[in-house]
């Protein structure tokens, strides 16, 4: 292992001038207080990949991160959002130099350089302050164990070499994921899931020894030893990746999915459904559903109803997601009913009104034609329909408030859906006739 090389990382290319200025100021303040500052992990990896950094920054401090956060907030006019003295971490919100007047503040995560030890496999780590080298050594993959020293000269960043003690740059060039030591997956089995996510996003493969270690960890059921909550967090992150289907495909190829949920499988049909997700959502902009919701439904569409319940219970999925999975089981059974010839719009509405837009869009992705068109038509044209007369207007026609009034309004809406009433006068005549 070497402790560095001479490659310089061109921070100027990936970080805009205002961000560089803020980093330079932060580094100068840290230096004044005898602390060294490092840009680490995913940001450095993404800079090496030529990506532009638009996100909040992760910095490691050889010193005291919570103390530095308070100093920065005082000197740069920001605010410390959270500071955990025990974990040596803090988040500071600083004025965003890219847009001082309107933008949200820039969040900078500061962490004291630390080592972690695991009292037993898959336990939560015990944390101690350390050097940057030791800090990088506790990380998941070599491509995330990269750092660049941040030093300021006036308002600009001083050029700094890449600190790459685990040859992450080499692995990045080979587009491979490599763990730093043989115990890595045992220490923290969620690294397998982080690996799948990264590999899917950046088109990486497993380095061969890492693959052997991963298979061995799976065979020893290390994932099953992890708390469901940690797995759920990873599953949710997977759903917010740009290509959740690729994450599932890779998880399947690496033999991970059976250790999460036995019947969760990737298939070509599933890939086709996932390909339809973005277009399907874009057809219903007012439905306000998230891509994560729809992917969650599409990826679990082929599970049985009881499997979906078991999945939701095992991983204590959020109530909204558990409800969505339940709804999907019911929507699936309505295909023949919805495609029956001559079905009136009010009938379609009666069948579908109890479902969330997300559940209907999941079915629109997963079911073959012509059902998707029926579902889109329902969401866009039928669901928003309301009668011109409201409860007050009905009372003026002599209807007393109560359940009967509610039923009359629903019947009036059904009449409007079926085209039996069009104008306000039609509706008034319809109400008069109903009351007679
Ligand atoms: P992105 O945010 O783009 O998904 P990232 O690499 O920044 O990627 P984070 O989850 O923010 O991901 O983690 C920041 C860094 O912390 C990682 O780059 C990695 O070095 C380290 N890290 C995160 N989780 C683990 C873990 N479970 N084990 C070891 N190191 C980890």
Write up what this structure looks like.
The protein is an alpha+beta fold. It has three domains: 8-174, Beta Polymerase, domain 2 (2-Layer Sandwich), CATH 3.30.460.10; 267-382, no CATH class; 391-435, no CATH class. 51% of the residues lie in helices and 12% in strands. It contains 24 helices and 13 strands. It has helices at residues 11-14, 17-32, 42-48, 65-76, 132-137, 168-174, 184-187, 190-202, 208-219, 228-239, 244-253, 257-260, 268-275, 277-282, 291-299, 305-314, 319-332, 335-338, 345-352, 357-366, 371-382, 391-396, 403-417, 424-435, and strands spanning 36-40, 57-62, 79-84, 89-94, 106-112, 114-117, 126-129, 147-150, 152-153, 156-157, 162-163, 176-177, 205-206. The strands form four sheets. It has a seven-stranded mixed sheet with strand order 3-4-5-2-1-8-11. Strands 6-7 form a two-stranded antiparallel sheet. A two-stranded antiparallel ribbon has the order 9-10. A hairpin with a 4-residue loop joins strand 3 and strand 4. The longest helix has 16 residues, at 17-32. It is elongated, with a radius of gyration of 28 Å. It binds adenosine-5'-triphosphate (ATP). Adenosine-5'-triphosphate binds at residues 41-42, 58, 139-140, 144, 188, 190-191, 194.
